[in-house]
Amino acid sequence: QVQLVESGGGVVQPGRSLRLSCAASGFTFSSYGMHWVRQAPGKGLEWVSVISYDGSNKYYVDSVRGRFTVSRDNSKNTLYLQMNSLRAEDTAVYYCAKEGPSGGEFDFWGQGTLVTVSS
Amino acid sequence: SYVLTQPPSVSVAPGQTARITCGANNIGIKSVHWYQQKPGQAPVLVVYDDGDRPSGIPERFSGSNSGNTATLTISRAEAGDEADYYCQVWDNSGDQSFVFGTGTKVTVL
């Protein structure tokens, strides 16, 4: 069965960096695009970034472009999100999600990891 | 950017039908996906490509999409359907972008 397990969240000061990881299993990781989606406390879902199956294409929401970098290691079945210059408004639960068969949906999600940006 | 508008809340009696709308300009030409999220849990895909159901999702969940409105319908509502529901589209006009709706809290009275 598909499993996605995020790690790396925590409390960090504004302006600092954090790297999230998402360990995947139960499917051919190297065949699917992967996403990061976040949810601020008490708020709705916000898509953050996507990386293509081979890592050649990457896209970001405007609010993180230039500060966050998505990457993947297909040999380790792991997705990453490097977050630099963190701001209070980046505080959220970060989910990794697998691209669905049609390409536009997220068919499996991890349990999420909480990032809190606070001084 | 593309904006998806949902009603903040919908109430339904057990056994009755709940309809959750997702409005946007010409949404009917896009594929719409729907997620259920219960408190403290990750979202779960319940409908994709307007009206298809992933394996394991009850037939009580159905979807439609036309014109400026997509709709998720929950038939024979159960207490376990109480959750937040989000619509979502892939906006691939220009830079790739994935957009979520504002979310709807469904209460089963």
Alpha-carbon Rg of chain A, integer: 13 Å
* Helix-strand sequence of chain A: EEEEEEEEEEE
Helix content of chain B: under 10%
How large, in whole angstroms, is the Cα Rg of chain B? 13 Å
User: Which quaternary structure do these chains form?
Assistant: heterodimer
Query: Can you count the helices of chain A?
Result: 0
**Count of helical stretches of chain B:** 0
Amount of helix of chain A? under 10%
Question: Helix/strand-derived class of chain B?
Answer: mainly beta
Catalogue the unreliable spans of chain B.
none
User: What is the tally of beta strands of chain B?
Assistant: 9
Largest interface, per-chain counts?
A-B, 24 and 27 residues
Please trace the helix and strand order of chain B, writing H or E for each element: EEEEEEEEE
Throw out a few tags for this protein.
A: 119 residues; 51% strand; B: 109 residues; mainly beta; 6-stranded mixed beta sheet; 3-stranded antiparallel beta sheet; 9 strands
